[in-house]
Amino acid sequence: MSDHRERILELMPYAEPFRFIDEIESVNNEGIVGYYTFKEDSDFYMGHFPGFPLTPGVLLTECMAQIGMVALGIHLIGVENIDAPIRFAFTASDVKFSNMVMPGERVKVVATKRLWRMNVLRCEVELLKEDGTQAAKGKLAGYRLKDE
Question: Residue 38 in contact with residue 104, Cβ under 8 Å?
């Protein structure tokens, strides 16, 4: 992995158990492709749903936001301009779910930038299962929080 992609991962403002990005395959000024594996032993599977564990849609959306907005936003700001993790506020989502993501599945998030202006980012995102099947697709928006 290039130093640039590794640096983006270092600058992510999340930690286990709420970090939903493992790897960045590619990133440029137009978009990003990244991966995450939903761990089979994650606590949320115990209650969602007992006997039929299923990854909650809200966590799939969070995974898409961390990769498609935060990691892409870090790239757009420029890793050379950042010396500590930065924070983004998630402001809007319009996501449709089309397939289930089960415990242990690795997903691929593909995000395309639609707007980046004055620290506001809007993007289109798609979440794919390992076999290429689409599990979710939508639009996300957010902005960079500045330290005052």
Answer: yes
In eight-state DSSP terms, residue 76 is H
Report the sign of the C-alpha dihedral through residues 55, 59, 61, 62, in that order: negative
Average pLDDT for the chain = 94
DSSP letter assigned to residue 69? I
Calpha distance 81→92 (Å, rounded) = 26
Structure tokens at 137: 């697709």
Token digits for 38? 């939903």
Task: State the Cα–Cα distance between residues 83 and 126, nearest whole angstrom.
Answer: 30
Q: What are phi and psi of 105, to 5 degrees?
A: -80, 140
Q: Are strands 120-129 and 106-117 parallel, antiparallel or unpaired?
A: antiparallel
Residues recognised as catalytic? 48
The confidence band for 80, taking pLDDT boundaries of 50, 70 and 90, is: confident
> Which residues lie below 8 Å from residue 145, measured CB to CB, with a gap of 6+?
86, 87, 88, 89
Q: Is the pLDDT of residue 148 over 60?
A: no
